[in-house]
């Protein structure tokens, strides 16, 4: 099997070769079936969706089956995707646009439910004070499709999906670069159109979409001003709220597990770079049709995921029933914000709902540390004792805390010594036996503690 790195490297070489060829034959490669705007400053007029008599509603996303096109079957992009061409100083760009009423349901939630989010909630969750200025009506939802994953000048951004609220609609506008020599026009239009937005929402955009788009702007001697605006990366939010519950926080898994959305016949993201490379060769819109669909779903999912963030943070008002993992995760966010009292309440609620010893162990450990730092540090003891009662208890933390408590707070050296003996016995079992070096280091530490306690118990024999 060819490795991912080898595949990306080979694809990059192919892209570079195509770029050289395109630049040498620029006019020859221009699409023949175009509708170019005469005025480069004209904005594309909002496209109204035509009535749909199927009963599904005018803005229902139709789930299509994506299959590779039949050999020899070539259909121009503007014949299968609704859109038009907009001109810029150095060419033109195909732009698709679709309007959704704010009442449109994407999975379990309507798009308009995103308006429930408060700026303070985003600051609370992300720790970014710049998000105090967050206003959904001035926010852009951004997602890109690229020719690869590497951050080099040979990686192109060929599709830029933008979503935003306008009056009673949510608009998805997708800027598509049909040829590499159209990048200057693409960047020029993006620079003009994105300048009005005051905040940004992405999914993993802080690490991928935004740096790559900034680089493409720099290649064209432009500056992406949007990069300076408050930025909410929903991947960060998702990890803080749901990683303990789901483990994998990729957008597809969040859609399936939380948003109630199952993508059918969606083009795999790993195929997208190769599909675009083939499209550049023959301009066959059938190759790229589902890439537009994939990008559109990503944007819509970000909107409803933002709504779910609010419903999780303000779960009592929104009447969302949180799992033990979600309550524990929310408690951890409160701890980051120094809201210890709220964290204690949430942890107790999570403990009552927890159904696994591993989760109970982590919650009790958190409760113990919170109590230890609270106004009644002696109350931490109950949590350490509860940890010891759990089946499959293999954590040394409660034994260490109890040993310190009995030695320093109660001067009960015999009970502290008993905790040491339990810890030394635990070290002779898995998982510590699988790590001899760590086992030896821990054993030496506990033996040193035990010797100290013995000297305190019987100083004459020391």
Under CATH, the topology of the largest domain can be stated as Nucleotidyltransferase, domain 5
Report strand order across the widest sheet: 1-2-7-6-5-8-9
Spatial shape:
elongated
The assigned CATH architecture of the largest domain is: 2-Layer Sandwich
Plain-language structure description:
There is one protein chain. The chain folds into three domains: 4-48 and 73-316, Ribonuclease H-like superfamily/Ribonuclease H (Nucleotidyltransferase, domain 5, 2-Layer Sandwich), CATH 3.30.420.10; 326-385, Serine Threonine Protein Phosphatase 5, Tetratricopeptide repeat (Alpha Horseshoe), CATH 1.25.40; 394-462, no CATH class. It is elongated, with a radius of gyration of 29 Å. The protein has a seven-stranded mixed β-sheet with strand order 1-2-7-6-5-8-9. Mean pLDDT is 87; it is low at 25-65. A hairpin with a 2-residue loop joins strand 1 and strand 2. The chain has helices at 4-24, 119-126, 183-194, 205-219, 234-246, 251-259, 272-282, 285-313, 315-318, 324-336, 340-353, 357-372, 380-389, 397-409, 413-426, 436-457; strands at residues 83-88, 91-101, 105-106, 109-110, 139-146, 157-166, 169-176, 199-202, 231-233. It is an alpha+beta fold.
């Amino acid at each position: 099997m060819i490795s991912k790195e080898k595949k990306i490297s080979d694809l990059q070489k192919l892209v570079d070769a195509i770029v050289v060829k395109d630049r040498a034959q620029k006019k020859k490669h221009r699409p023949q079936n175009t509708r170019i705007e005469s005025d480069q400053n004209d904005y594309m007029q909002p496209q109204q969706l035509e009535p749909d008599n199927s009963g599904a509603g005018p803005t229902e996303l139709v789930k299509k089956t994506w299959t590779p096109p039949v050999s020899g079957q070539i259909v121009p992009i503007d014949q299968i995707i609704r859109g038009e061409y907009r001109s810029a100083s150095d060419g033109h760009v195909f732009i698709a646009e679709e309007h959704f009423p704010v009442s449109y349901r994407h999975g379990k939630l309507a798009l308009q439910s995103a308006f429930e989010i408060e700026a303070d909630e985003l600051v609370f969750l992300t720790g970014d004070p710049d998000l105090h200025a967050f206003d959904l009506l001035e926010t852009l939802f951004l997602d890109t499709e690229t020719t690869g994953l590497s951050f080099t000048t040979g990686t192109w951004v060929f599709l830029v999906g933008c979503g935003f609220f306008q009056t009673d609609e949510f608009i998805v506008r997708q800027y598509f670069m049909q040829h590499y020599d159209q990048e200057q026009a693409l960047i020029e239009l993006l620079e003009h159109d994105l300048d009005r937005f005051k905040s940004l929402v992405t999914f993993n955009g802080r690490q991928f979409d935004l740096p790559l788009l900034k680089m493409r702007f720099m290649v064209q001697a432009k500056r992406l001003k949007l990069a300076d605006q408050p930025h909410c990366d929903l991947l960060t939010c998702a990890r803080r709220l749901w990683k303990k519950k789901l483990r994998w926080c990729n957008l597809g898994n969040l859609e399936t597990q939380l948003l109630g959305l199952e993508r059918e016949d969606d083009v795999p993201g790993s195929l997208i770079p190769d599909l675009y490379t083939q499209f550049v060769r023959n301009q066959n819109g059938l190759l790229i049709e589902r890439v537009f669909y994939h990008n559109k779903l990503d944007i819509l999912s970000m909107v409803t995921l933002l709504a779910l963030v609010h419903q999780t943070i303000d779960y009592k008002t929104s009447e969302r029933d949180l799992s033990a993992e979600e309550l524990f995760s929310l408690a951890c966010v409160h701890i980051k914000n120094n809201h210890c009292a709220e964290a204690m309440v949430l942890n107790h609620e999570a403990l009552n709902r927890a159904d696994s010893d591993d989760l109970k162990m982590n919650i009790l450990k958190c409760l113990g540390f919170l109590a230890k730092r609270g106004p009644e540090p002696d109350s931490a003891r109950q949590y350490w004792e509860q940890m010891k009662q759990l089946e499959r208890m293999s954590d040394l933390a409660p034994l260490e805390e109890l040993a310190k408590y009995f030695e320093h707070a109660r001067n009960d050296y015999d009970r502290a010594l008993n905790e040491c003996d339990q810890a030394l016995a635990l070290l002779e079992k898995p998982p510590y036996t699988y790590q001899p070096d760590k086992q030896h280091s821990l054993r030496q530490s506990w033996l040193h503690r035990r010797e100290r306690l013995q000297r305190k118990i019987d100083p004459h024999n020391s």
